[in-house]
Amino acid sequence: MSSMIYDLNGIPVQIEYRRIKNINLYIRPPAGEVLVTAPKGTPSGRIKKFVDSKEEWIRLHQEKMRAQAGKGEAGQPTKGQIEKMKKQVLQYAKKWEPVMGVHASGWTFRWMKTRWGSCTPRTGKIRLNTKLIFCPEECLEYVLVHELCHLIEPSHNQRFQNYMTKFLPDWKIRRKRLRESGV
User: Start and end of every YgjP-like metallopeptidase domain (predicted)?
Assistant: First the structure.
C-alpha cells in the first residue's frame, strides 16, 4: 500500500492506494485528520480533483469534530466524564433513595439513542444515558428521580406524576430544560 500527502489549502490529506473499487473520503476522530483511499492505479490528478471538490464538506466536518472533542471521540463522553457522572448519580441516589423509600439494585451507564433512562422495577436495575453528561446537572437529577419513581409506580400514569410532583415539584421545568438541551 503506497501513500502520499496532498495539501488542500492548508489541510493535509493523506492519500492511500488500496485494492478497492472507489475513491473514499474519511475524517478521523478526534482531531479530524483527513484520509482518502483510492484504487491502485488511479491518476493523482483525478484524486486531487475529487479532494478539491470536497473541501467545503471536509472543513465543515472537521469543525464539528473539533467542537465535539471535549465530549470524547465522535461525541461520546470520555471515561473521566463517565466516572464523574457515576459519582454524581451515587450522591443523588444517597440523597433520594431514603426520601423516596426505594433502593436501586444497580446502576448502568451507557450511550442510548432514544431514552434518557430506563428502569426494570422487577429487578430494581436502572440504566442512565451517558448523554446526560452534556446536560445541565439538574436534568441528571430529574432523570434519576424519574427512574426511582418507577420503582414505586412502573407506568407514567397520574399516580406516577403525583409522586414526581411530591418529590421534585419543579420536575416539569427540568423535563422541559432537558428536552431543550439540544443533546
Answer: 24-70, 83-180
The string of DSSP letters for 103-155 reads --SEEEEE--SS-SEEEETTTTEEEEEGGGGGS-HHHHHHHHHHHHHTTT-SS
Reported in sequence order, the residue ranges of 21-111 that DSSP labels E, i.e. its strands, are 24-28, 33-39, 106-110
Would the pTM of this model clear 0.85, i.e. be above it?
Answer: no
Structural domains of the chain, with CATH = 3-72 (no CATH), 77-179 (3.30.2010.10)
Cell 492548508 sits on residue: 10
pLDDT band at 73 (very low <50, low <70, confident <90, very high): very low
Q: What is the pLDDT of residue 90?
A: 96
CA gap 119, 15 in Å, rounded = 48
3-class secondary structure, 3: strand
Tell me what pLDDT residue 67 has.
Answer: 64
Q: Closest Cα to residue 7, out of 30, 36, 29?
A: 36
Q: Kindly state the cell numbers that stand for 29.
A: 476522530
Q: What is the DSSP letter of 73?
A: G
CA angle (76 as vertex; 64, 88 as ends), nearest 5 = 125
